[in-house]
Amino acid sequence: MEYRALLTESAQRTGNIVCMGLDPIAEALPFQGGDFFDNALKSFEALFSMMEDQSLLPSAFKPNIGYWQIHDRPLVGAFRGSLALAEVLKMLRTRFADTPVILD
């Protein structure tokens, strides 16, 4: 299916055109105390659970890759930000399988 059609179908199914940005700022995450990876996963897990409980569904999710990659340290082989994004994308695939993701 063409991506534009997928977005249109999702908007019709959810009854909205909301595109939810997933752009974490480490200091603003509700869970603190661990590293970015742990804090981000706990925060998004809690957010997605609340969304499911309240049947809140955007028509698309849009993580901005820069907010995640800022936590990578490629010269030392550390990719905690990118790994956290990968885990959040897996959560989306499991919890919101029919909702398109726009990686920005």
Strand content: 5-15%
Largest sheet entry: 2 strands, parallel
Rg value? 14 Å
SSE string, helices as H and strands as E: HEHEHH
Oligomer: single chain
Side-by-side strand order of the widest sheet:
1-2
Low-pLDDT parts are none
Average pLDDT across residues? 97
Shape: globular
* Estimated structural class: mainly alpha
Keywords:
4 helices, mainly alpha, two-stranded parallel ribbon, globular, 104 residues
Q: What does this entry look like structurally?
A:
The chain has 104 residues and is mostly helical. Helix 2 runs parallel beside helix 4 (80-95). The longest helix is centred in the middle third of the chain and has 18 residues, at 36-53. Strand 1, helix 2 and strand 2 (60-62) form a beta-alpha-beta unit. The model has no long low-confidence stretch (mean pLDDT 97). It has a two-stranded parallel sheet with strand order 1-2. It has helices at 3-14, 36-53, 65-69, 80-95, and strands spanning 19-21, 60-62.
Short description:
With 104 residues, this protein is mainly alpha-helical. The chain is built from four helices and two strands, in the order αβαβαα. Helices cover 49% and strands 6% of the residues.
SSE blueprint and pairings:
Layout: H1 3-14, E1 19-21, H2 36-53, E2 60-62, H3 65-69, H4 80-95
Parallel strand pairs: 1-2
